[in-house]
Inverse folding.
């Protein structure tokens, strides 16, 4: 699948991104990176169905509207894995130290729902994160 994001998003301190995950059902985008960076964004008109229908029109009109931009705190190292559970609108993230956090949306804001400190065991990919989402 190919996607095009026509919105410039500022990353604090010029941190390097290590993972990006898109919730195709609700239009959420998670960006994780160096320095415990974790941002969750919501773009209006950015669900997979809307993007397919409006790709040309959105590009001509200047892209999608950024509806939400929230920085999530809880990781201590670089966030290396992010995976969406589209059914329950949850986000699972893991950092380089092995800390796994499940985030849930409540009243328009993202909150920690569960923390699993893997004590040095590392989640290396989305398959490892998906079991917690």
């Amino acid at each position: 699948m190919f996607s095009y994001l026509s919105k410039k998003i500022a990353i604090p301190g010029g941190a390097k991104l290590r993972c990006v995950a898109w919730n195709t059902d609700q239009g959420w985008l998670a960006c994780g990176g160096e320095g415990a960076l974790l941002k969750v964004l919501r773009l209006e008109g950015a669900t997979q169905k809307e993007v397919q229908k409006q790709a040309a029109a959105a590009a001509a009109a200047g892209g999608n509207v950024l509806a939400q931009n929230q920085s999530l705190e809880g990781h201590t190292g670089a966030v290396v894995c992010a995976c969406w559970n589209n059914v329950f609108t949850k986000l699972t993230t893991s950092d380089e130290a092995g800390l796994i956090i499940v985030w849930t949306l409540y009243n328009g804001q993202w909150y920690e729902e569960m923390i699993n400190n893997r004590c040095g065991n590392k989640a290396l990919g989305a398959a490892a994160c998906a079991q917690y989402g």
Observations:
- The first strand starts at residue 17 and ends at 23.
